[in-house]
Design a protein that fits this description.
Helices cover 28% and strands 44% of the residues. β5 and β6 form a beta hairpin. The chain contains four helices and seven strands.
């Protein structure tokens, strides 16, 4: 097992049209407005940006992201990540009943030295930290879109 690598898969069912969900996810500069753990996003131009985020654990991560796919027809948004985490993240957005299913997949390697030193004993905490962040993001996006969430 590579203790520095993580794969995440999250499913968000949201009571809002797919176009609205895609549009919100495609505007990362707005994430801090609805996602409490996303502390700051800076547009660097040319489909690039930087972000800082922090969940429950007492550390903040910083990444630079580069858009590699933005396809409203297929509902796919994908970025490459560099910095404290290196790898990629992808949203796939589509209809689900009267609302939307947004699927988040991410494969990253932790690069931050302290996190690498704590990789083995803290792995369950790192995963739980990510789960808390994703739950808050789902709830925040639902509120942001004025939709509430389907459970």
């Amino acid at each position: 097992m590579d203790w520095f690598r993580y794969r995440f898969h999250c499913v968000w069912d949201i009571d809002a049209p797919p176009e609205a969900v895609f549009a919100a996810l495609a505007r990362p500069a707005d994430y801090p407005r609805w996602w409490p753990q996303v502390r700051a996003v800076t547009d660097l131009g040319d489909g690039r940006g930087s972000a800082r985020f922090r969940s429950l654990l007492p550390y903040e991560l910083a990444v630079t992201a580069r858009a590699v796919r933005r396809d409203p027809e297929s509902g796919v948004l994908q970025i490459d990540l560099r910095g404290d985490l290196e790898g990629w993240a992808r949203w796939t957005v589509g209809p689900r009943g009267p609302g939307t299913r947004a699927v988040y997949d991410q494969e990253v390697e932790i690069r931050r030295p302290l996190m690498r030193r704590l990789a083995v004993p803290c792995r369950p905490l790192f995963r739980a930290n990510h789960t808390v962040m994703m739950r808050a993001g789902r709830a925040g996006l639902g509120r942001y879109l004025g939709s509430g969430l389907s459970i």
